[in-house]
Design goal:
Structural class: alpha/beta
Number of helices: 10
Radius of gyration: 18 Å
Shape: globular
Oligomer: single chain
Number of strands: 8
Distance between the termini: 23 Å
Length: 265
């Protein structure tokens, strides 16, 4: 495995920001450098979370993948009302940096986006807003309904005033950016596009986001998408997200097996 862990300068964010990249071990033997997965972190995590909690080196080798793990703070992968333009950074600037600095492909058929929780929301938003850029998307325990987020902030968070301020920083003082960032609206618009990403979703049946995932599943199943949803017993946790990531890789990519692996007795 080749592993880059460091910082890059973003003009969009006007600052240095953390980035991790994980590649297959024998990258010189990989035709065209393989597929790229932009792997997005959740609300309470950072760019290191997937690296520390998932089996990325094994998946990179077995499925011929390069994982790109950006840092977006608690931005909901959004061009914030009172903050930084993280959606523009992830979908426009970061791919250009990855192509220039690491030689990664910018072809649609080579690029996928996946994530958990807030990152699941971000992955769906990226793929549905920019279907010409991503061939597929996987979202695990995704926040599929922004109104649920607002309801939780008002009723359930330990510090509701703090949570409301945070949501307003992202979506506006009067939540005016919520509509344009609503996955239901974005998916309906994307359905009209001749290019549509394949979508894989998974959620635990005991996850506090399970019900809104079921509602989004039913909505997506009524639209014209190549859409797959799976669920099993589990909560909002890394055991489930590890399994989900393995399933998503198996769903999208043919298993890459080296000649040496085939010759093992």
């Amino acid at each position: 495995m080749a592993n880059f862990s460091g910082t890059i300068y973003s003009k969009t964010l006007d600052m240095r920001t953390h980035l991790n990249i994980v590649t297959p071990k024998d990258i010189l033997d990989v035709p065209d450098n393989g597929k790229i997965v932009y792997l997005l972190h959740g609300l309470s995590d950072d760019a290191d979370a997937w690296l520390k909690n998932a089996q990325l080196p094994l998946l990179a080798n077995d499925y011929n993948l390069t994982f790109v793990l950006p840092e977006v703070q608690r931005s909901f992968y959004t061009d914030m009302a009172y903050g930084l333009d993280y959606f523009t950074y992830v979908t426009e600037e970061l791919p250009k940096i990855c192509k220039r600095l690491f030689g990664l492909s910018d072809k649609r058929e080579d690029n996928y986006v996946m994530g958990l929780s807030m990152g699941g929301y971000g992955a769906l938003k990226c793929a549905l807003k920019k279907p010409e850029q991503y061939a597929g998307c996987a979202a695990f325990s995704a926040l599929t309904d922004l109104h649920f987020l607002l309801k939780q902030a008002r009723e359930d968070f330990p510090r509701p005033e703090h949570a409301i301020r945070e949501i307003k920083a992202v979506f506006g003082q009067d939540y005016e950016l919520m509509e344009e960032n609503d996955l239901y609206r974005i998916a309906k618009e994307c359905e009209k596009n001749p290019l549509k990403p394949r979508i894989f979703m998974a959620c635990g049946t005991e996850d506090f986001l399970h019900e809104i995932n079921l509602q989004f599943r039913d909505f997506m199943s009524s639209l014209d998408f190549d859409y797959t949803y799976q669920e099993w017993a589990g909560i909002h946790e890394w055991y489930l997200w590890n399994k989900a990531l393995h399933l998503a890789c198996g769903h999208f990519f043919p298993r890459y097996v080296t000649e040496n692996y085939c010759n093992i007795k």
